[in-house]
């Protein structure tokens, strides 16, 4: 019927038309779970440190990679940290710290209409409206004539995997945090410290939508 809501007769397991072969009119096992991918996270770090009674240093690098549970969403972050300290005298000390991070992420939009298509909402909303007898494992093949624009079962929705693959919503963030401090201890247990900090950040958000038409 083209409707995209789960309503109608109760599931009875009878065979009904579906793509090239009939399918049972029943709920697909773990269907909602099948919509999502298996996410994974990897973190790698490297650090060196050293010093004497006059100075100290610490340098570290961390790489963080995450692939989300929503198809084709990911995040990558590089972080570099530098800490340096100098003991000029028993009473005077200076410390400097700088951290630089670069983050790249690819997300999925929610809360609006995709590509200006005015009858529906984005990928996850389309997925939650999908009847439980429609197998997400098959919908992943959005090039199939049964799951593309012309063949997709939903008259008021778009195959969510097409959206997640073809709509590019990405963000790149560069962030620099630095600080320098000077400490003076005139007498034991009394220290005066002056500190200056800065934070410089840039963010570049890009959204690319595919062109498509119905025949």
Helix-strand category: mainly beta
| Intertermini distance | 19 Å
Proportion of beta-strand residues = over 45%
Chain-averaged pLDDT: 88
Overall strand count:
8
Helix content: 10-25%
Number of domains: 1
The whole-angstrom Rg is 28 Å
Most strands sheet? 6 strands, antiparallel
Low-confidence stretches: none
Order of helices and strands: EEHEEEEHHHEE
Describe the structure.
- By secondary structure, the chain is mainly β.
- The protein has one domain.
- Helices cover 11% and strands 46% of the residues.
- It is built from 4 helices and 8 strands; from the N terminus they run ββαββββαααββ.
- Helix 2 runs antiparallel to helix 4.
- The longest helix has 7 residues, at 123-129.
- The chain starts with 14 loop residues before the first strand and ends in a 7-residue tail after the last strand.
Write out key terms for the chains shown.
two-stranded antiparallel ribbon; mainly beta; 215 residues; six-stranded antiparallel β-sheet; 8 strands
Give a short synopsis of this structure.
By secondary structure, the protein is mainly beta.
SSE arrangement:
Blueprint: E1 15-16, E2 23-24, H1 31-35, E3 40-51, E4 55-67, E5 74-87, E6 92-107, H2 123-129, H3 136-139, H4 160-166, E7 168-187, E8 190-208
Antiparallel strand pairs: 1-2, 3-4, 4-5, 5-6, 6-7, 7-8
Helix pairs in contact: 2-4
């Amino acid at each position: 019927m083209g409707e995209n809501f789960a309503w109608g007769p109760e599931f009875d397991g009878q065979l009904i038309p579906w793509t090239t072969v009939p399918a049972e009119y029943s709920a697909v096992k773990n269907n909602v779970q099948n919509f999502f991918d298996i996410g994974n996270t990897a973190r790698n770090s490297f650090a060196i440190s050293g010093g004497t009674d006059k100075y100290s240093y610490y340098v570290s690098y961390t790489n963080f990679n995450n692939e989300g549970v929503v198809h084709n969403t990911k995040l990558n972050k590089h972080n570099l940290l530098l800490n340096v300290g100098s003991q000029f005298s028993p009473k005077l000390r200076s410390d400097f710290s700088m951290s630089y991070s670069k983050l790249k992420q690819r997300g999925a939009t929610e809360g609006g209409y995709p590509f200006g298509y005015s009858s529906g909402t984005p990928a996850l909303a389309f997925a939650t409206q999908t009847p439980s007898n429609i197998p997400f494992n098959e919908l992943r093949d959005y090039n199939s004539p049964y799951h593309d624009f012309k063949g997709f079962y939903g008259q008021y929705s778009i195959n969510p995997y097409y959206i997640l693959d073809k709509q590019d919503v990405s963000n790149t963030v560069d962030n620099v945090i630095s600080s320098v401090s000077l400490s003076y201890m005139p007498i034991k247990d009394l220290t005066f410290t002056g500190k200056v900090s800065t934070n410089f950040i840039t963010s570049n958000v890009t959204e690319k939508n595919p062109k498509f038409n119905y025949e």
